[in-house]
């Protein structure tokens, strides 16, 4: 570069800055009323889980109270939470879905 004033040549060095985005876990919570099959369906429909993985996650939540559906950027995680909560409400199930920063 040239500073245009004194004619001094200024050499600048650029550094490729690749900032990693903050990541968020999407979790589902256990309750006493939501049918197991409904939770499996949610995991297949909104989190692209196969039936085996969906069943494993659902049973983990059933026994431990909480479980991970996936890890996403903020906007994607927020969209998943809203989709699951809307779908559960539409079917009158109390299923809860939340996100937490990793
Ligand atoms: N505990 C529920 C039942 O016995 C099943 C269930 C599993 C509910 C996972 C919610 O996130 C959940 N029908």
TrEMBL record:
GO molecular function annotation: peptidase activity
A Pfam family annotated for this UniProt entry: ClpS
Keywords: Hydrolase, Protease
Gene that produces this protein: clpS
Residue ranges, annotated region (Disordered): 1-16
Protein name per UniProt: ATP-dependent Clp protease adapter protein ClpS
Assembly and oligomerization: Binds to the N-terminal domain of the chaperone ClpA.
Entry's family note: Belongs to the ClpS family.
Domain of life: Bacteria
Alphabetical list of InterPro entries matching this protein: ClpS, ClpS_core, Ribosomal_bL12_C/ClpS-like
Domain Adaptor protein ClpS core: residue ranges: 19-97
GO annotation, biological process: protein catabolic process; proteolysis
UniProt function note: Involved in the modulation of the specificity of the ClpAP-mediated ATP-dependent protein degradation.
